[in-house]
Each structure stands twice: as C-alpha cells, then as structure tokens.
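Shipment paperwork, digital attachment
Item: protein structure file
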Amino acid sequence: MPGRFSNLLDKSALTLSGLCLLHCLAGTLLLTLFAAGSEWLDHDVHVIGFGLALPLAAVALWRGVAAHGRFGVAALGALGIGLMALSLLIGHGGSGETLTSMAGVALLGLAHLWNLRAARGA
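Attachment content:
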C-alpha cells in the first residue's frame, strides 16, 4: 500500500487540476464578460501549469501503479497529459484550446482520483 507521500502527491495533483479548471472557466467567463484578458490568462501560464503537472502526475501515477498494478490509471493519466500538451499547440484563447485543455485536466484529475481509490484497496 502506498504511503502518505503517494497520497499527498495525488492530492496535490488533484488540487492543481482543480486550479487549472478554475482558471479555464474563469478565463472563459472573463473573456466573455470583458472581451479582454489579463496577464493570468496569458499562454505562459499554461506552459507553467503543464510544466508542474507533468512531473507531479508522472511520479504520483507511477508510484500508485507500482503499488496497485492498475495500468489503466496510467493510461488515463497519459491521455489527459497528451490532451493538455495538445492544447499548448492550439492557438491561445480559442474555444478549441479551452475545451482540449479542460478535457485533459479532467481526465488527469480522474486518473489521480482513481489512483487514490486504488491505493486504498491495494
């Protein structure tokens, strides 16, 4: 059974996923209401967020899968990371970028949730 550190990694990753979703939703709302973004909506924040998410997800999911053996967790997480990476290649500010990013973050968040639950049963 993974220890507290593994649980902390997954919970940290879930928090980061939630913040990313909040950023996407709030950014879309602000763009709709004010027809302009602020610096926190800049594309660099997505690159930074991805740079944080990638190693955190890799370590947390790898540790979990090593303990419980459910490779579907890693596959779901990889799909989420892949969509997040794809969203970085799409033009900033469009609905395609937002939807792709949110789908990736949601899948990655689900993978971390599944990882936490699987670790409890391992």
